[in-house]
Write a structure and sequence with these properties.
Elements: E1 7-15, E2 18-25, E3 34-38, H1 52-57, E4 61-65, H2 89-102, E5 110-114, H3 116-127, E6 135-138, H4 165-170, E7 176-178, H5 179-183, H6 188-193, H7 198-209, H8 227-230, E8 238-240, H9 245-250, H10 256-261, H11 267-280, H12 283-294, H13 298-301, E9 313-318, H14 330-338, E10 342-348, H15 355-358, H16 360-378
Parallel strand pairs: 3-4, 3-5, 5-6, 6-9, 9-10
Antiparallel strand pairs: 1-2, 2-4, 7-8
Length: 379
């Protein structure tokens, strides 16, 4: 594992049924304030390697796990027909709580989540603000818990709502499909793990397509959750109906010269990702998407209907990241109502979706500034 100096790899047993693989920095001295970093898809704890030393140098104990379904963490069920229940958001929060407790902390200064890890971080802060005393959401804004049906006692019962957008996407002149629902299909894992170009080149194309290096990433807010608006998203979000993800990103493969020139993800670092995903497959991460698209766990999340994130919060994303806007209105709702103590929303130029890898210096600066502000507000 090509890790910078000051980061160690270790395992922690008995974390909510998992043997959890963790990267750790700032472990040399006891009593440091703790920061928990949660990665997204298709990444690993390794995605935080560039910011961990800077947080540790500023006096923090930094913990970054391979989350349930990923990397060297074991104890999860990777079978498509296996236990989807264990991947629901509240159990992922339980994973985070268990890890923090195992390290001897009653609370952490901040939980920081990127991509799908942003959702876990948001729910950590919403459900246990006593433990997760501040939160940084990266590349995936949080719009709040799902609402409960309201004022319906004297109204006639309504049929179960079915989102027509998928049928409408498929009926467009250029037929399309949403990537999260594709990721929920039985075929998605094999499409990627057995990609014709190999896992390494698949990931190279995927990371390139969603980065600032792909020059057509020029995001802007969409007007609505409708087929016509969603079709404006790049094909890594709203795919051509007949193509899988390996075929989608193969069309945008960077040139050999561009790969050689890549400084934020050189091939020797990408090789670690590709080796891990060749070994484990992608299904563990895809289970997270299935939990969301199935709708099975909305009822549980409605327990917190009407609640907001009331600890200090911050949002960081790449200026060239469509993830900020992929769900219309959520970026605005996060700032207006879902997070009541938001100290900043930062869009970093020169970064796409992989913001902490593409622009680690600026991300580290913003994280340290936020941690200082959150601590001062708490005093």
């Amino acid at each position: 594992m090509p890790l910078p100096s000051g980061i160690r790899s270790r395992f922690v047993d008995d974390i909510n049924g998992l043997r959890m693989h963790v990267l750790e920095a700032g472990f040399e001295t006891k009593g440091r304030p703790c920061v928990l970093l949660l990665h997204g898809f298709p990444e690993l704890a390794f995605s935080w390697r560039k910011v961990m030393p800077q947080l540790a140098a500023a006096g923090h104990h930094v913990i970054a796990p391979d989350q349930r379904g990923y990397g060297r963490t074991t104890g999860w069920d990777g079978d498509y027909d296996g236990d989807l229940n264990s991947f629901r958001l509240t159990n992922l929060v339980r994973d985070a709580l268990g890890l923090v407790s195992a390290f001897g902390y009653r609370s952490v200064d901040a939980v920081v989540g990127h991509d799908f890890g942003s959702s876990v971080a948001a729910w950590c802060a919403l459900v246990r603000p006593d433990v997760f005393r501040s939160v940084v959401l990266m590349s995936a804004p949080f719009g709040g818990p799902p609402p409960l049906p309201f004022n319906t006692a004297d109204a006639p019962p309504k049929p179960k709502h079915e989102d027509p957008v998928h049928r409408e996407l498929a009926a467009l002149p250029r037929p399309r499909k949403h990537y999260q629902w594709y990721y929920s299909t039985r075929e998605a894992n094999a499409d990627m793990q057995r990609a014709p170009q190999g896992v390494h080149d698949f990931l190279r194309g995927y990371y390139h397509h969603k980065s600032a290096d792909w020059k057509d990433n020029k995001p802007y807010p969409l007007k609505s959750w409708s087929a016509g608006e969603l079709a404006k998203l790049p094909t890594y979000y709203v795919m051509d109906l007949a193509r899988n993800m390996a075929e989608t990103v193969a069309e945008q493969m960077p040139s050999p010269e561009a790969i050689t020139a890549n400084q934020w993800l050189p091939d020797r670092e990408l090789a670690f990702y590709s080796a891990e995903y060749e070994r484990t497959g992608f299904q563990g991460g895809l289970q997270w998407y299935r939990c969301g698209t199935s709708g099975e766990f909305i009822g549980e999340l409605q327990t917190w209907s009407g609640r907001s994130i009331d600890v200090p919060s911050c949002f960081i994303s790449g200026k060239q990241d469509w993830g900020t806007y992929q769900r219309p209105g959520v970026y605005e709702a996060m700032q207006q109502s879902a997070c009541t103590r938001m100290l900043g929303a930062h869009l970093i130029d020169g970064a796409g979706h992989w913001v902490q890898q593409e622009q680690p210096g600026e991300v580290s600066r913003l994280l340290l500034r936020f941690l200082k502000q959150a601590t001062e507000r708490a005093q």
